[in-house]
Write a structure and sequence with these properties.
Layout lengths: L2 E12 L2 E12 L3 E5 L6 H8 L7 E6 L2 E2 L4 H7 E4 L11 H11 L5 H11 L15 H12 L6 E5 L7 H16 L3 E6 L2 H7 L2 E6 L2 E6 L1 H5 L16 H9 L12
Parallel strand pairs: 3-8, 3-9, 6-7, 7-8
Antiparallel strand pairs: 1-2, 1-4, 4-5, 9-10
Helix pairs in contact: 3-4, 5-6
């Protein structure tokens, strides 16, 4: 299959801090790839480079056939970015938020686009209510709906379920799966191992500035010894695979992302 995202040798440092040390990653069209790593591993830095918000020190990144450094405008037209917190206007209704973004992106007719997205994300009944009355899951679904205006071929989700309760998280997971079924390529960053298990076609583990493993969940599980048979056969969880590969648990408590 065709790689919609092709990253090779990506490097980025902040003064003496080397965040990315030669990252290679390929993401196929219509797939969901989870970029997994501890706090400070460089996940957000990588997403910012791919979305043209930050310039790499070395290496190349190509999105939908466009070089991120040489053709940033073309890349921005092909992608959408949803950050760690929902970027919605609480004083407007859900429909008004969608109409506003459609107008800003010169998409017509904005009202019809808004109505179609409200229906797609099961927000039609809440569309006329102010976003201030929405639950966390509804806000995040609206945020993702807004990011799809203009029909980007690639969507970046940076920690999409941060701060959400389990029910809201499940709502977002269903939304992400729906995106992939519709042909959208999704690259998401997460610290939640269960999230990667639930969503990703492939999982890339970013550790100390490099992707140290990239594969399906079955391929990652195969890196560990075969499951032990006691009363039942227990497959290793992604969490066990992650810590076995990296050799350490996340002891970063400052909560900062890079």
């Amino acid at each position: 299959m065709t790689s919609v995202i092709d990253v090779r040798g990506l490097e980025k440092s902040f003064q003496q801090l080397h965040v990315l040390r030669g990252v290679d990653l390929a993401v196929e069209k219509g797939s969901i790839v989870a970029l997994l790593g501890s706090n400070g591993a460089g996940k957000t830095t990588m997403i910012r480079i791919l979305s043209t918000l930050l310039t790499a020190d070395a290496g190349t990144a190509v999105i939908d056939g466009h070089d991120v450094a040489a053709s940033p405008a073309a890349v921005r037209a092909a992608i959408s970015l949803t950050g760690q917190f929902a970027a919605v206007d609480e004083k407007l209704s859900g429909r008004e938020n969608l109409v506003l973004i459609a107008r800003l992106r010169d998409q017509r007719p904005p009202g019809a686009i808004a109505d179609r997205l409200l229906d797609r994300f099961s927000l039609t009944e809440a569309g006329g209510r102010k976003v201030a009355t929405y639950s966390g899951g509804m806000r995040r679904r609206l945020d993702i709906a807004m990011s799809l205006i203009g029909e980007p071929s690639v969507i970046f989700l940076d920690e999409p379920t941060t701060g959400l309760d389990p029910e809201a998280r499940n709502e977002v997971w269903a939304t992400v799966k729906q995106l992939a079924r519709g042909g959208t390529t999704v690259l998401l960053t997460t610290q939640y191992l269960e999230e990667a298990e639930q969503l990703a076609d492939r999982i890339a583990i970013l550790h100390r500035g490099r992707i140290i493993v990239d594969g399906t969940l079955a391929e990652l599980r195969a890196l560990l010894p075969a499951a032990k048979r006691e009363y039942v056969e227990k497959q290793p969880s992604l969490e066990e695979v992650f810590f076995a590969i990296t050799g350490e648990k996340d002891d970063d408590t400052d909560g900062e992302s890079r």
